Amino acid sequence: MTTQTLPQLERREPLWTRLPVLSHVRNSVGLQRGMLIAGLVLTVVFLLMALLAPFIAPYGFSQISDAKGDFPTQDPPSAQHIWGTTVGGFDVFSRVVWGAQTAVLVIVVAVALSIFAGVALGLASGYIGGWLDRVLVVVADAVYAFPSLLVAIVMSIVISHGQSSLWGGILAAAISITVVFIPQYFRVVRAEAIRLKAEPFVESAKVLGASSWRIMARHIFRNATRSIPLIFTLNASEAILTLAGLGFLGFGIEPTSAAEWGFDLNKAISDVTAGIWWTGVFPGLAIVLTVLGLTLVGESMNDLADSRLRTRGRGRRQRTTTAGTSESGAPQTGAVPGYAASTEASSGQEGGQA
């Protein structure tokens, strides 16, 4: 009597385990996982501080007095002001917390505009090709010649006319970052579009009479934007540095309009010679830790995008699981005669190919 071999069913992982960041955490091992988790912790703290700023900050970003009277200027850290006060009487802790909210606004506006323009131009250039592709590639290469901070200064003057209001400063930084970051998204999406337009499923869509816009929107767009989260995390840290550079050079946001870390560092320069360290240390640490967290996440995701690293980590976990199963000697549940043997044979073939 022969036993029928049942086909091996592939288990589909839950959706939440296939999300960009969570999937990278699962695939990471050793030091790479530690760097990724450290970056995620710093990034989550930064986001929570921005979202919960009204509840965390004891005072407003431009508040210089309360019911007891005016705040003392350049007051060292105390029970009332845990990180001290600035030369203008602002609470340093409150300014740092509210500054996280300003940084998030710049990241969202700048990167959203960059992704929208870069992906649209990349799809059109890669799929349509011809003279449009040649012109866009030349323009994208020329944009790299412009320093981002110089463009940000010019945009700040043009948009805000020397008046550093909240949205004027945010739009100045966001537009300058958008101009610099568009070529990055453009090049990645263009390369994927050129590769995907020769795939069989795109050719089948053409045979069925699908228009070029439908093919780009339904077939190529979905497969050409998988690496966008990697670029987003790397660009977010650069956006914060550009905003801080504008504020430090005096083109940022005034303290009465919004809190901004670079502006606070500018005002703290004169305090250093007088031994007043708290007005510059805490805003500087906020910039360093936020940029470090976003950079660790971006670089770790970029490294794990390499298929060799993913295969190495997955193979190590599979070997550990196989060794534990062989040592315990526990039989597989629901085994069918002949099915276990075929599974072992296929596993042996996969091991030989690897």
List the helices and strands and how they pair.
Blueprint: H1 20-27, H2 30-51, H3 53-56, E1 65-66, E2 69-70, H4 92-128, H5 130-143, H6 148-160, H7 166-196, H8 200-207, H9 212-224, H10 228-248, H11 261-267, H12 269-272, H13 278-304, H14 307-328, H15 339-353
Antiparallel strand pairs: 1-2
Helix pairs in contact: 2-4, 2-13, 4-5, 4-7, 4-9, 4-10, 4-13, 5-7, 6-7, 6-10, 7-9, 7-10, 8-9, 10-11, 10-13, 11-13
CATH topology term of the domain at 59-290: MetI-like fold
Order of helices and strands: HHHEEHHHHHHHHHHHH
How many whole angstroms does the radius of gyration measure? 27 Å
The CATH homologous superfamily name of the domain at 59-290 equals: MetI-like
Number of helices: 15
Give the CATH class of the domain at 59-290.
Mainly Alpha
CATH architecture of the domain at 59-290: Orthogonal Bundle
Strand content: under 5%
Task: Tell the overall outline.
Answer: elongated
What is the helix content? Answer: 55-70%
Instruction: Label the structural class.
Output: mainly alpha
Which residues form runs of ≥5 with pLDDT under 50?
325-354
How far apart lie the N and C ends? 35 Å
Enumerate the strands of the largest sheet in spatial order, edge to edge or round the barrel: 1-2
Give the biggest sheet. 2 strands, antiparallel
Subcellular location: Cell membrane
Domain ABC transmembrane type-1: 100-298
Protein name: ABC transporter permease
Family: Belongs to the binding-protein-dependent transport system permease family.
